[in-house]
Amino acid sequence: MTLIKPKLKQIVLGVIALAFVVQIGIVVFNSMNARQFTGVRLNDTNYEEVFFHNDAQSIDLAGMLFLPEGEGPFPGVVVIHGSGPSMRANGWYLTLTKHLQDSGIAVLLPDKRGSEKSGGDWRSADYEDLATDTLAALNFLRSESELPLSQIGIVGMSEGGKYSSLVATMDGNLDFIVNVVGSAVLPKEQLQFEENYNLQQMGIPPGISYVVALLSTAQIRYMREPEFWSKVSDFDPNFYWSQIKARSLVLYGEDDTNVPSRESERRLEALENPNIRVIVYEDSGHALEDPPSQGNSIFRSEALNEISRFVLMDSENNL
Regarding beta strands 106-110 and 247-253, do their DSSP bridges make them parallel or antiparallel, or are they unpaired? Predict the structure, then answer.
């Protein structure tokens, strides 16, 4: 018995060490193989800095308000950030917001809680907490008397798209929802998918990569970020998507290595909710970037145009 415990300890320590090595390897591999994209720069945009308050959780929030030319009324959009902190200079978000602004749409791009000029801490927040920030942003837009709105909705980006259906059910009065590459599988399933893919790209054979991914995902969920993953691991976005009555557009890239696009498409279509339309773009990944043969824009023009057309649609039009 005394011999078994030291061996078991060595095995556990070895597994933990392997998980750390895998994580480092994935980061190094991805950085070495990163493609360089072009996008809109912050200096090339025209916006107003705004401040508002999340009354539900007593958090002061800030953001950038992109107003189109003219007197309105305009459709209004609140963007929901993806995972991690937000940065105002992020070219992916700015490429989208400038396109919408130029298309005659008012856009509020908040600073995520705990980022830039917003208070709070996203690290200790679950999706229900983060959703209240978006509700506060929507209420701010609605309260602006000098900004006449013809309709109002949300554009969720990546993880923000994942819980955009939650925001919509909590608000109850949205005219439209756009989900940009937000997964429709459980967060723990998405993490396993992402880790497994990265390992295969590093040359680890399928099957073995799946087993190693189980170890690396366990290290992330139970050691690196236990507080966050204990709250969101089993979040099911489709529980909320099934209740959605607002017209909804969901966009995926077929080559996405972060989100299982086709499985997400399958689960959304299985809901048989006539208000949801799903489009999967070939030869694009998680950013819906240009196909390699067509350019290096961080956000392909077909997807941008699809979003602006959808937002500008009269709510009576068919999808």
Answer: unpaired
Q: What is the pLDDT of residue 35?
A: 78
Q: How far apart are CA 283 and CA 69, in angstroms?
A: 34
pLDDT grade for 201, boundaries at 50, 70 and 90: confident
Q: Are 316 and 307 in contact (CB under 8 A)?
A: no
Distance, CA of 225 to CA of 124 (rounded, Å): 10
Quick: pLDDT tens for 255-265.
999 999 999 99
Closest CA to 166 of 135, 129, 128: 128
Domains identified in the chain and CATH numbers: 1-34+187-234 (no CATH), 38-186+236-312 (3.40.50.1820)
Note the pLDDT tens digit of each residue in 292-311. Answer: 989 999 999 999 999 999 99
Give the per-residue pLDDT at 228. Answer: 87
Is the Cα torsion angle 279, 284, 285, 289 positive or negative in sign?
negative
pLDDT at 225 over 50: yes
pLDDT in tens, 17-47: 555 555 555 454 444 456 799 999 999 999 9
